[in-house]
């Protein structure tokens, strides 16, 4: 069943590539606008509420019924392909275990912990948390299952802080300062281990899967941040993924991997407003630099950390121009240019809905590649969601056990 899904998704992503690859932020008129002027028109006419709903989840059931994209794009087919089994189960962790854990993280743990089975007494497994941070997951598992858990983390400060937390709660967690990319990292995994990883990024969870498959270790993984990888172009893990991608002409670069995990709505309102202003100002500057240079092309400007944004639009433009060695003319109509930036921002947000439609399909495709890799290594694998997207959009779970 997953193979058919993998195959169809590959085809859909390959045929949709000209749509999801377009960056309306950089190209005022994406190439697809001339092919489907009606689609661009319909999107540009959307009110703010519909925009927000579609940005949040363009493939959610509630968005499907009256999706303005459906007349042009395969919305229902994509929604069907990304609909995975709901594996969610929830436990409430005792208050005393939650010390030092942010509320949201705690609720994610409450959803993840029941995904990790307790091992029967007659066949105990070694639990290993991969890239553990302070080992919140390891601690919860140690206490819930009454076993010792090994926590691997390369940052000695996190290991030390995690050990203090574990000792304070009498939780049997042993931390090891371990770079999981190092040669010897495989020594922690064997046929009797169960490796768990909640939100381990790109290369870190790739490494886990490769080493686990070599060793025959069980895996319970919620993958994250596929774009955090040393490779410029995505190399499918599975032979099946490589074959399907090659046959369909599907290639994924870092932008595609970033799109797979791009979210627009989970940030607090203040941060969201800051982002919107940053986007409008950058687009305002984009107009200005095209005029000043006499070149109708996007010019990337470095990002600014939160709180470093100048107070006025004109100051931002002067800063950006200095970064690019551009001399600005006298008498710029700053108010008019800023208004243009905001107009472009509203336009870009709407045109980007086409890209957003392919966000989840890309993410599910990447998860299916991991599933296929494990199956090829002789595993029985389950793939589903372990919690609602509102708790974490990275809610895909892979659970694999050697056959
Ligand atoms: C996204 S955090 C996830 C932490 C934890 N699993 C959680 O959900 O809170 C990734 C962790 O991986 C650690 N890390 C990054 N690179 C690593 C490496 N090469 N080896 C081991 N740990 C690494 C980071 O220090 C960080 O604690």
TrEMBL record:
Source organism's superkingdom? Bacteria
Q: Give residue ranges for domain Methyltransferase.
A: 105-229
GO MF terms here are: methyltransferase activity
Q: Tell me the InterPro entries matching this sequence.
A: Methyltranfer_dom, SAM-dependent_MTases_sf
Mind listing the UniProt keywords for this protein, alphabetically? Methyltransferase, Transferase
Looking up Gene3D superfamilies in the UniProt record yields:
Vaccinia Virus protein VP39
Signal peptide residue numbers: none
List the SUPFAM superfamilies hit by this protein, alphabetically: S-adenosyl-L-methionine-dependent methyltransferases
One Pfam family linked to the record:
Methyltransf_32
Q: Which GO terms describe its biological process?
A: methylation
Q: What is the name of the protein in this document?
A: Methyltransferase
Organism equals Halomonas mongoliensis
């Amino acid at each position: 069943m997953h193979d058919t899904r993998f195959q169809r998704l590959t085809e859909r992503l390959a045929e949709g590539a000209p749509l999801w690859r377009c960056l309306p932020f950089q190209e005022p008129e994406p190439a697809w606008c001339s092919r489907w002027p009606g689609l661009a028109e319909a999107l540009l006419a959307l009110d703010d509420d519909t925009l927000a709903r579609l940005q949040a989840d363009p493939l959610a059931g509630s968005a499907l019924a009256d999706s303005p994209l459906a007349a042009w794009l395969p919305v229902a087919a994509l929604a069907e392909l990304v609909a995975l089994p709901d594996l969610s189960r929830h436990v409430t962790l005792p208050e005393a275990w939650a010390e030092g854990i942010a509320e949201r993280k705690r609720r994610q743990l409450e959803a993840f912990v029941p995904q990790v089975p307790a091992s029967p007494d007659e066949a105990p497994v070694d639990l290993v948390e991969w890239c553990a941070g302070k080992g919140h997951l390891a601690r919860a598992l140690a206490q819930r299952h009454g076993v010792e858990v090994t926590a691997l983390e390369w940052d000695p400060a996190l290991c030390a802080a995690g050990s203090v937390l574990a000792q304070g709660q009498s939780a049997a967690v042993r931390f090891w300062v371990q770079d999981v990319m190092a040669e010897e990292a495989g020594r922690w995994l064997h046929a009797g281990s169960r490796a768990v990883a909640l939100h381990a990024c790109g290369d870190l969870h790739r490494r886990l899967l490769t080493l686990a498959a070599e060793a025959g270790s069980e895996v319970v993984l919620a993958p994250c941040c596929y774009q955090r990888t040393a490779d410029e172009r995505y190399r499918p893990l599975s032979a099946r993924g490589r074959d399907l991608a090659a046959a369909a002409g599907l290639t994924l670069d870092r932008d595609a991997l970033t799109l797979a995990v791009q979210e627009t709505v989970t940030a607090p309102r203040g941060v969201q407003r800051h982002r919107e202003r940053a986007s409008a100002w950058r687009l305002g500057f984009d107009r200005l630099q095209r005029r000043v240079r006499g070149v109708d092309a996007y010019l990337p400007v470095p990002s600014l950390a939160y709180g470093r944004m100048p107070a006025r639009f004109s100051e931002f433009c002067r800063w950006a121009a200095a970064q690019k060695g551009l001399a600005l003319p006298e008498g710029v109509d700053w108010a008019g240019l800023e208004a243009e930036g905001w107009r472009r921002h509203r336009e870009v947000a709407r045109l980007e809905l086409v890209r957003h439609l392919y966000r989840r399909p890309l993410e599910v495709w990447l998860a299916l590649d991991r599933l296929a890799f494990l199956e090829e290594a002789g595993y029985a694998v389950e793939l589903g969601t372990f919690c609602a997207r509102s708790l974490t959009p990275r809610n895909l779970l892979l659970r694999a056990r050697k056959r």
